[in-house]
Design a protein that fits this description.
Elements (H helix, E strand, L loop, with lengths): L8 E6 L7 H16 L2 E5 L3 H5 L3 E3 L27 E5 L2 E5 L2 H10 L4 E6 L1 H12 L4 E5 L15 H22 L2 E6 L6 H10 L3 E3 L7 H15 L4 E6 L11 E4 L7 E3 L2 H13 L3 E5 L11 H19 L5 E6 L2 E6 H4 L11 H8 L9
Parallel strand pairs: 1-2, 1-6, 6-7, 7-14, 8-10, 8-13, 9-10
Antiparallel strand pairs: 2-3, 4-5, 11-12, 14-15
Bound molecules: 6-O-phosphono-beta-D-fructofuranose.
Amino acid sequence: MTEKKPIKRIGVLTGGGDCPGLNAVIRAVVKTAWYQHGVEVFGIEDGFTGLIEKKIVPLPPQRVSGILKQGGTILGTNNRDNPFRHPIIVNGQLTHVDVSEKVMRTIEYNDLDALVIIGGDGTLSIASELCKLGVPVVGVPKTIDNDLSATDITFGFDSALQTAVASIDKLYSTAASHHRVMVVEVMGRYAGWIALQSGLAAGADVILIPEIPYRMDVVCSEILRKEREEGKAFTIVVVAEGAKPVGGDVTVAKRIEGSYDPVRLGGVAFKIAAEIEEATCKETRAVVLGHTLRGGSPSPFDRILATRFGSAAVRFLMEGKFGQMVSLQTPKIVSVPLELAVSKPRNVPPDGEYVATARAMGAVFGDEI
Ligand code: F6P
């Protein structure tokens, strides 16, 4: 793909974990391309696997009608397949090969002049590599974790937050009626945004995030102090899946070999609940929200952001702004280089205003006596 062709056919792909709002982006790409530029859009199925295995389907405007409010992705997705490290079995052994040439052939065979690639850091890193091979690409950032530094917010986060808060709200009845400690684990990988913001919105007593390693003795003595001094007979603990004790490590649920990030976190809530029960003698239960946070219909905020992102992605392609990612820099949607977009994660600043506000509400992070 060396000579610069006018854009007549765009391919769109969703990679990495699903999240609410992916379909809204796909719809916006199709509608903007067709209605504003007379450009056809083709869906690439199952992430980069579709480019390797030539799974390309036409996406006329009628195909995306009604998908704005649908969770997941109509194209399917995949968080294992990387064209530059494609997993294959040789002599019974898992090994990885570069199949990027196959990808280039699929793009040329299907006459795709440019790609919109929607994903998190792993998917966008691959997008950046494809761009270096000469593929005109614009990336769209998605993740419920909100851990990409080059945009104010990723779509999917707001919907995940709504699900988390609604679930935590529902745990208050059991916590209060049984005078229990309820430990709720939320996703977020190595960033504590979902835990922090759902903890703030649901009025959690304890919020444990990866950015502030906790001490269990601090958490437990605070639970007992509140009961003794304030008559608080129940406790809501919100813990990020990536939270870890001071001097300790994260809780790993499993490894997915071949994935961009093979470590899957999960299960810290069970450890914490057991430790709290033992130290405080208070009945304690653990609830892991897990993938429920990725499910369901996108919130209005996410639908709008995803639509703005999808529409802007086509606009940037048509303006020849390749190798860029759409980004919200409030109030504007701007383009930022893909390489920059994936170079640095976005973490909760421990001394930031969100943490300070939660502390002002009496929330305990487990780092102070
Ligand atoms: O990045 C989104 C996310 O849901 C994380 O919060 C979580 O750690 C991970 O994906 C789970 O991945 P999988 O769907 O492969 O279990």
